Fold these 2 entries.
Entry 1:
Amino acid sequence: ILQPTHTPTQKRHGTIAHASLNNLAIDLLVAGLVVIEYNKISHGGTHFESAHAILGLISYIFLLIQALVGFTAYFVPKLYGSVDNAKSLYKWHRLSGYIVLTLLLATVAAATQTTFNVQTLKIKLWAVLVTAVLVLVGVLPRIKKQKLGLGASKAPVSL
């Protein structure tokens, strides 16, 4: 959730909403994985042949790491030694979130080239790419470079 927050209460509510929506999304992705695996196993299908399957596996791994780091940094900061140490991970969590979003968009685009889509669903690659571009057009301008450590450089310290 990329909503500006100003007060500690807003930040906490934003974090809870962010975690809740992402957990719901991960739950739905896992449900999809279970359905696909059941189908593959019951029909003797092979695994990890398509770009979609490979990108999907990479996406699941990144999402798991992202969720674990995000959860522990915010809710269990002592795992990192201190709250400040945990907060130092926020910019990396944020940056990797943008990378994961891009990876997920690529995974969806790759799904259009699977046998099941080509023969049954017939979702067009161009439609997915247009949608992915629209998502990025909505997200990229909202990236706050300073929260990634890429903002205006600090003035030199005079001695």
Note: Residues 47-148 form one domain.
Entry 2:
Amino acid sequence: MKLFIQLGILSATNIGLSFFFQWYVLTQLGPGAYTDALFAGMAMPQLVLAVISGSLMHVLVPLLSGESEDRIRHDAWGFLALIGGLFGLLAFLLYAAAPWWVPLTVPGFDEAGQALTVELTRIQLVGMVFTAINGVQWAAYHARQQFLWAEFTPILASVFALLLLVWALPRFGVIAAAWISTLRMGLQTLLLAPGMGSPVRPDLKSPAIREAWRRIKPLLLGTAYYKTDPLVDRFLLSSAGSGSLSLYYLAQQIYGAVSQVINKAISTPLVPALSRLDKAGDKAGFRRIYHRKLLQVGAFSLAGLLILGLFGQPLLALLAGYGKLSNQNLKLLWLMMLLMSGQFAIGNLGMIMTSMFYSLGDTKSPTAVGMVAYSLGVVIKILMFYVMGALGLAMGVSIYFLISWALMTKKISEKKYV
């Protein structure tokens, strides 16, 4: 319980600072072409990270958990060299080709908006490399169950970034926000470096790397498909009214911020804990912890939705007195959040379910579910957008997560894991 509270506080602080960074940019510049370009420019770096770095985290933590300190150090350096080189190459290729592929993701932007999106995307591709390296570093900390420093380093980096943003944004505009985001990721890499231990020569042919590749292949195949969701959203919203993309992104970020607190405090420690119980053959303990965490997350999610429904408008109205967010903007934001509430409530339960699969080394089942759910959900989202605009897209998100939850529940029943 003590670790849960500590992680919850650190995660809430970290996510809150990250959210405040984006909120500050949005309120100072106002929802419009500049912020739309900034958030659209995040789409491809986030997609690549979700496909490769996110998949790697789910594989590395259970793989390294329970191993000796020396084994963790050697394997971690091998993964760091591999991932750093891979993402460096990807960033270079995407950077060079940005003038060709970026405009295709935002066809509704005018020529100036597309040019700005290209510039902002290129800046954030540099930060993508640091974030990928951070993923390996976090995995090394989590495998040792050293969660606290891993969660504290982003706070230090975010405080520095916020102070710099307050000074730089009025002077250099949206370009400053993109560069400071990249700098924040680089600072985290430096702060997390001690967790890697003393450097060793990477062994790219080690059994751990071969096993990681075996586990990650189905994840890469599936996530390369269904993690394109943000690109679909940006593509559709680029033809909506100016500022709609920014408000939609902010709504997702608010939910994402709270979900990340739950993820860091509950889901992240759950993977190594369940992995150890599985390796020890303690099936009863495995089922008990899984169901307890599922119940906790369900209760937190329900409480969050009740607060949003009853007090959401007054709470968001507190922002109206700051910067360039109007009352009309805030009402639209609240409606978007209500309609996409499935992302929060059902998505949080999905985190626990997928964590259970990953702790067992089963990456194929959640990937298969994700691919089927996305295939159905993306069609629904497109139809809803053309019927109701940005609000329809928000409602489509909830339907998509409901489909995913139903399929995941069916898969768990078939596998008889719990």
Note: Residues 75 and 208 are 7 Å apart (CA to CA).
